Amino acid sequence: MIDLWNDQRGTFHPDSALDYLPEPQLRRLQLQRLQAIVKRAYDHVELTRTRMQTAGITPDDIRSLEDIRLLPFSTKTDLRDTYPYGLFASPISEVVRLHASSGTTGKPIVVGYTQQDMEVWKNVMKRTFVAAGLSRRDIIQNAFGYGLFTGGLGAHYGAEALGATVIPASGGNTTRQLMVLQDFGVTAICSTPSYFVHLVEVAERMGIDFHKLPLRTGIFGAEPWTPQMRSYIQEKTNIKAYDIYGLSEIIGPGVATECSEQHGLHVFEDHFLVEVVHPVTGEPLPDGCEGELVLTTLSKEAMPILRYRTHDLTSIISKKCSCGRTIRRIDRIGKRTDDMFIIRGVNIFPGQIEAALLSTERNLPHYQIVLTRAGGLDQMEVRVEVTQSLFSDTIKAMEQLQERFTKAIENVIGIRVKVTLVEPHSIPRSEGKAKRVIDQRN
Ligand code: DLL
């Protein structure tokens, strides 16, 4: 008998049928949904209506998918300016869930979901797990934080809908996480990649051998991580590590995900319309060109978002994926437009530093980038935590290591920056998103 829950290829699942729609059908569905969502936002969201009126357009002007370019962009500032419910297109009595995401300043942004939005969210997360080869037979430890953050509950409902056994571990309490991991037969784990690396490190100190555990899949996201970090995780723990992407403003996790090919992230295009634009001019860029990801929700009732500037940098991969999915892929997101800092005229992204450090030492260093300002110029220091054994080694060995890191960073960014080796465990660990950059410039 064919097991529709998870066939031998580990990819097909009835709920994933939309991943394989013939392209013309997918585009037709997108256009229908786009027209409906633009009308919904125009009718129910004052800010959208005013913007569209200023631009001289009405929902009737959206006749093709390309017409999306007629619509004005929306940004995080819009969510702040209309805090908390100003972008809602549904009365609060129809909103069954709220989440919030902390911004860099002051108040968080608030996002809402109707019952129908919850169904969509559950469905895209289920498809995310299926793409990673998971089925109802899996035992999933969900170490994304539960609460206002979308990661915990988003993954939870999707995993339950899949029929898998979900352990709502949430983030933190590392010793208990490791107990669960060892004792509950866990086959898959969800967390930020940096928290998983922390788990691995603590497990090592406790003498736990990942190779002896049934764990085989990691679902990681919510922060940028490098291909080097993926290799480190996969080699160290013998699991397959998948990248998943999403953001609260659009739905939470469940916007895009990797499949078994681990080459780019499939966007759930039946629910999210993807564009890549020039980060400065906002002009659309051709497939394959790196630019800012712009997303439009195609089915979100409570909070339809049109042409949202994510600040995340990526490109659209138009080549068909060998997994057979027809929904297009975006490249993994390694940087954001607002991540970048300029040191001595050179544009630098934190991910470049991580890649350089990992190319030097096979054992993953914990690191932090500290930005300061002296004499009007930005300065950067890279603090790298060394392992116990290295730390107790000779001064000469430490100096050599420091020079290796400095050189590796110079090779990547083209300038020499200060590298400081710091004691083991002196860089704070995060239960959720890692804080890689400490900005002391103001
Ligand atoms: O981080 C939603 C999420 C939860 C995604 C769990 C994946 C897994 P926010 O807190 O609103 O939502 O943060 C969204 O995080 O704009 C990216 O800059 C970054 N981000 C999320 N996933 C990835 C990823 C959740 N796979 C912001 N790679 C986004 C790189 C990511 N950056």
In short:
The protein has 442 residues and is of the alpha/beta class. The protein has helices spanning 23-44, 46-54, 76-81, 115-131, 150-162, 174-183, 193-205, 227-237, 350-360, 388-391, 395-413, and strands at residues 95-101, 109-114, 139-142, 165-167, 188-191, 217-221, 240-247, 252-257, 265-267, 272-277, 291-297, 308-314, 316-317, 329-330, 335-336, 341-343, 346-348, 367-374, 377-385, 418-422, 437-439. 5'-O-[hydroxy(phenylacetyl)phosphoryl]adenosine is lined by residues 101, 144, 150-151, 221-224, 243-248, 252-253, 310, 312, 333, 336.
Distance between the termini: 65 Å
So what's the oligomer here?
A: single chain
- The CATH homologous superfamily of the largest domain corresponds to ANL, N-terminal domain
**CATH class annotation of the largest domain:** Alpha Beta
Task: Sum up the overall morphology in one term.
Answer: globular
Mean pLDDT: 93
Strand content: 15-25%
The CATH topology name of the largest domain reads: Rossmann fold
Helix content: 25-40%
Helical segment tally?
Answer: 11
What small-molecule ligands were found? 5'-O-[hydroxy(phenylacetyl)phosphoryl]adenosine
Sheet having the most strands:
9 strands, mixed
